[in-house]
Amino acid sequence: MSRLSFRPRPLDVNKKIPIVKSIKDFEDDDVLTSTRLRLVSDADSEVHQIASKKAASEIPTPEFVVVDTYEKDYSRTFSQPASYLRARGARSEIGEFLDYDLDNEDEDWLHDFNKEGKNLAAEKLEAIIFKLEVLDHKARERAGVITPTLSAAIPVLLTSDAAIEALQSLSIQYGVFLSIYNYWKEKRERWQKPVTRRLQPPPPVNDTNPYNVFRPREKAHRLHTRRVMNLALMQLQRRENNVQSFEKLRQVRRNLDQAKAILEALIKREEKKRELLDGEVSVQRIQMKYKHETELMEDDYLQAKLASIEEEFFDSDGNNRGVVSTRPHFVEESSSASAARRLRHE
């Protein structure tokens, strides 16, 4: 065995890395090449190798069906425009996207507000509240009072004058806008946090409220020794199974059941949508099928009509010719009858 020498080579993503499993793998490349060639020549022929290469180079293609009426059903109506086609941006790129929906409290306030003779749409109220939330968040960013976690009440820094100046493009009356601003500010101070979920900071890590689920999880990597496990077991045993904990667990169970019912309703809705789509596709296929069948029936009817007209024409022509040809026969019969009467008379 020759002396081995290794030198670093750059890795190639398209080349497999050789794995050495025994000392026999350290043989020279020449010996390996000659042995491999001898084994291949003894086992298979060159014709078989060429056939296997051709079989390996074949690319599988999916099956297709030729539709004879495709050009008739789908006409080429597209014309090359003079300019490029404009693609519509995503929702985040469009300024009209809103990330706020009215809750029951907002709907009640809007109902009472419209009773006074106002005509404020729900979509406009959503747009104004969402824009007020975004403007207040930007004002807190400029003031440097952005809190990383929801540990204290978040103040409202957006003033009514700044909001009116920023939302002049909405073309809304001053009194209506001021009423919406006062309602939003009162709700914000009552909630002590933004009403839009995306702008709310996450709760602190040490928050034990199970309903504040959107908080960062920080797992400490501890060794699970027997002492640690015993301490955890003792802490579990010290917990009191009181009525308050039982009621909390029942509330969590009810919430999970409601979420399960909502998910089942969503699944049923999507299944109905799928069935409706399948039905529409089936109806369109049947319409296309009967469209071609009616065209074929019309063609057959026209051909049969033409054939019947031709037959009637030939029949009428044949009758006329039959009258002309039978006239001499009638004359011959009349002459033979007169000859018979003459013989009887004699």
Automatic annotation (TrEMBL):
Keywords of this entry: Coiled coil, Nucleus, Transcription, Transcription regulation
Record GO cellular component, one term: NuA4 histone acetyltransferase complex
Transcription among keywords: yes
Domain of life: Eukaryota
Every Enhancer of polycomb-like N-terminal domain range: 51-133
Gene Ontology process terms (BP): regulation of transcription by RNA polymerase II
Primary subcellular site in the record, as a coarse category: nucleus
Keyword Cell wall biogenesis/degradation: no
Compartment list: Nucleus
Stretches assigned to coiled coil: 249-280
Family of this protein: Belongs to the enhancer of polycomb family.
Protein name: Enhancer of polycomb-like protein
Source organism per UniProt: Genlisea aurea
